[in-house]
Amino acid sequence: MQSHDLIVIGAGPGGYTAAIRAAQLGLDVACVEKEKALGGTCLRIGCIPSKALLESSEIYERASEGFDEHGVKASGVELDLARMLKRKDRVVTSLTRGVASLIKKNKITRYSGTARFASASSLTIDTPGGPQEVGAKHIVIATGSKSSSLPGIELDGDRVGTSTEALSYTEVPARLAVIGAGYIGLEMGSVWRRLGAEVVVFEYLDRILPGMDLEVANAAQQTFAKQGMQFRLGAKVTAARAEGDACTVESDGAEPFACDRVLVAVGRLANTEGLGLESVGVELDSRGRIEVGDGFQTSVAGIYAIGDVIRGPMLAHKAGEEGIACVERIVTGYGHVNYDAIPGVVYTHPEIASVGKTEEQLAEAGVAFRKGVFPFMANGRAKAIADTGGFVKVLAAEGTDRVLGIHVIGPRAGDLIAEAAVAVEFGASSEDIARSSHAHPTLAEALKEAALSVDQRAIHF
Ligand code: NAI
Question: Which one of 183, 188, 202 would you pick to mutate in the ligand 1 pocket, going by the greatest count of ligand atoms within 8 A of its CB?
């Protein structure tokens, strides 16, 4: 039986990052992946293809109606959806190949097949050539997550589908029902609305983007509604099905809703099935995720888990940080993830980004804080690029002034949040951000001004 120091199951952003870091630290590392392409959900059917389509659809919408303001007349703008989808596929292929070459460059052994535990220190990998036994001192489970559904919804892999199908509709649906106003529903709903679909979002709660700062979520909802997205809040979807080309969505207390396609985006479930976890005694929590303690160790010594398959936000960069911390802990005894400094971004237009605590979380925890807000309307660069919607909000502790949370809705929020994450990671005060020189004219000045505004001394508002 071939044996390694460490085997990672799954080559998504959590798994391949853990494998590369372990190889850098001098371990003999292997990685098992059942899909042909490496990179996991994020690269193949998640973050990357959705961002490619968000960019393409935004360009289409701007070319169709957004150039006038700049004195640019565009006519005859047409959608070539097949080409748009092909470009998205090319982006995915180039990145998944990139991961494969990183695996090779770092001399990581790659196994193609589906792994399950044979014992606490060995795996059976079902490969096309038959089962193969492989052993390791340390095994890291990084198997990710899959779309979940609801009772009453018949996912048919076509008309009633998940984000995977919504990345590849071959024609623009006339009417698209989106179930769930979370990250996926709003991003993919935006793509198809921009390309011409009538999009109706059904959300169980009375707000969108649960978990995000409420003031930001409400501002986002207003903007999306202005863009033409329709919201049915407080709507508990009880059934969705396709009959031929027509779909129906049923929700509590409302008439059945007829549409062409249904996108189910009600969250994701940890991928634990088929790993043989029970046979080796790896325990799950009440939500079916792998229970981990210090250093990402599961209930079995030598077996670890990271990423979507454990607690915490299902985000690629969170999984990557955990992968690094997990293997550093194994090799060096140190390794740590600061969960308060993990940013979250929704790549709609405007983008929405946040790091640290929301106002609601601080209020609930009884933490006294001061708040500074600065609107992009008062930012020179935002005016110059004709993208002035939204604001930056800085929340700082009363007394110490330590930054506890930063929330941004507006142009390039996903890039601006990097500075905010560094501030939280370094334990910065709002005064630190306010005193740091920010280049003019940049969107980042809105963050500096919001920090100044914590102390009522913003210059431009
Ligand atoms: P989500 O948890 O963000 O949102 C699901 C929504 O569905 C919630 O608002 C929930 O209240 C609603 N819902 C649940 N049951 C319902 C029902 N019966 N009827 C109507 N609404 C119902 O989940 P989503 O959007 O599927 O995303 C899954 C994961 O993928 C998230 O954890 C997210 O972090 C990650 N993701 C991250 C992205 C990013 O970083 N930009 C992009 C896409 C996904």
Answer: 183
